[in-house]
């Protein structure tokens, strides 16, 4: 309700002061029950909501608090995510270190096996050389002593053959061991490649987690800043809320005084409302009787209108039949006049041919007669 005074009614409202919006009222002379009732309803509406501004402040503060709680929850969740990502990063780092140590161990083993392989190859080559030397010596000795074929007479040849067999056995064992070593070296190299690939993938994961951790840290910093700003705003809003509460207490006191003053006006308004209800009931009864009369008259007029419509249709039908009869008669008269005109012309022609010329007066008489 505006602060201007509304004259011509029972209650007159004005603001109590320039700072507050509380309404004060005083009595005016009685001028009408309806105006009194309207102004009383307006007054109750205006005084029943004295703390609209404070409620708005409360809603705003509640919204601010909800937003702060949401920001705090997001900060805590982001901190938990950061700790989880840090633990994952540490685990991946430990796994990377473990794989690196395993790769180094496998490399050392491969180097040792390669060295052993080279040593075995050297032994094999030396054994092959000794075998070749023994075979050459045996063959030369056999050529020189072609006449003597018994082995008992040549102990050097027997010993050289035994050495040859032992060297062949050593050669076969060395080749087998060399094959096993090559297989183990190939397996270790494959494992080393797999471990290197796993280490690279884990390094990539660690880098990705570091990036995500940085982004989460930035988000956490921004959320903490927003939370600090929100706390400051909440402190300011709390101060304003305290002021609004003080004003609300003052307004409630004033409203109590107004309610006490309004009780007397409420009793008078109720009496006037009862009078208005009685008048309205009387008017409703009169209107109901008038409506019943009008409905009966309307039904009677509808019957009259239907009868008039029927008479109108009958008259139109009769007129149509009469019009058709007159048209037929007119056509018959026109046909008779045409036949008479043709007969008169025939008589004139025959008269002129029989009697000759006729005086002018006689022609005029004939025309007037026709």
TrEMBL record:
Does the keyword Cytoplasm feature in the UniProt annotation?
A: yes
Q: Is the keyword Lipid biosynthesis assigned to this protein?
A: no
Gene Ontology cellular-component terms for this entry are: centriole; centrosome; cilium
Look up the record and give one Gene Ontology term from the biological process aspect.
regulation of cilium assembly
Top-level taxon in the UniProt lineage? Eukaryota
Q: Which UniProt keywords apply?
A: Coiled coil, Cytoplasm, Cytoskeleton
The record's section on InterPro entries has: Odf2-rel
Residues annotated as coiled-coil are 96-130, 157-336
* Predominant location category: other
Q: Indicate where this protein resides in the cell.
A: Cell projection, Cilium; Cytoplasm, Cytoskeleton, Microtubule organizing center, Centrosome, Centriole
Describe the family membership recorded for this protein in Swiss-Prot or TrEMBL.
Belongs to the ODF2 family.
Protein name according to UniProt: Uncharacterized protein
């Amino acid at each position: 309700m505006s602060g201007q005074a509304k004259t011509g009614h029972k209650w007159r409202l004005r603001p109590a002061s320039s700072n507050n919006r509380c309404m004060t009222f005083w009595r005016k002379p009685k001028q009408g029950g309806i105006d009194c009732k309207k102004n009383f309803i307006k007054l109750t509406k205006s005084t029943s909501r004295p703390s609209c501004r404070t409620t708005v402040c409360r809603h705003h503060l509640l919204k601010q608090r909800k937003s702060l709680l949401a920001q705090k929850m997001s900060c805590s969740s982001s901190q938990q995510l950061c700790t989880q990502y840090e633990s994952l990063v540490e685990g991946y780092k430990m796994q990377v270190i473990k794989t690196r140590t395993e790769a180094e161990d496998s490399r050392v083993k491969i180097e040792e096996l390669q060295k052993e392989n080279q040593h075995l190859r050297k032994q094999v080559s030396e054994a092959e050389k000794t075998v070749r030397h023994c075979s050459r010596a045996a063959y030369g000795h056999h050529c020189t002593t072609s006449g003597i074929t018994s082995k008992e007479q040549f102990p050097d040849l027997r010993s050289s053959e035994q050495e040859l067999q032992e060297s062949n056995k050593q050669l076969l064992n060395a080749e087998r061991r060399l094959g096993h070593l090559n297989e183990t070296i190939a397996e270790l190299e494959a494992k080393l490649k797999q471990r290197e690939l796993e280490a690279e993938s884990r390094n990539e994961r660690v880098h990705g987690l570091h990036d995500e951790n940085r982004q989460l840290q930035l988000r956490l910093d921004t959320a903490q800043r927003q939370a600090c700003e929100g706390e400051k705003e909440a402190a300011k809003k709390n101060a304003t809320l305290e002021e609004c509460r003080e004003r609300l207490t003052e307004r409630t006191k004033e409203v109590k005084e107004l309610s006490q003053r309004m009780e007397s006006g409420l009793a008078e308004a109720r009496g006037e409302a009862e009078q208005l209800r009685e008048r309205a009931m009387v008017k409703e009864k009169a209107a109901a009787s008038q409506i019943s009369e009008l409905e009966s008259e309307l039904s009677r007029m509808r019957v009259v209108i239907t009868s008039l419509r029927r008479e109108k249709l009958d008259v139109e039908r009769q007129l149509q039949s009469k019009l058709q009869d007159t048209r037929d008669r007119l056509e018959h008269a026109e046909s008779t006049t045409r036949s008479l005109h043709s007969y008169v012309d025939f008589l004139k022609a025959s008269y002129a041919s029989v009697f000759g010329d006729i005086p002018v007066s006689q022609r005029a008489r004939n025309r007037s007669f026709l």
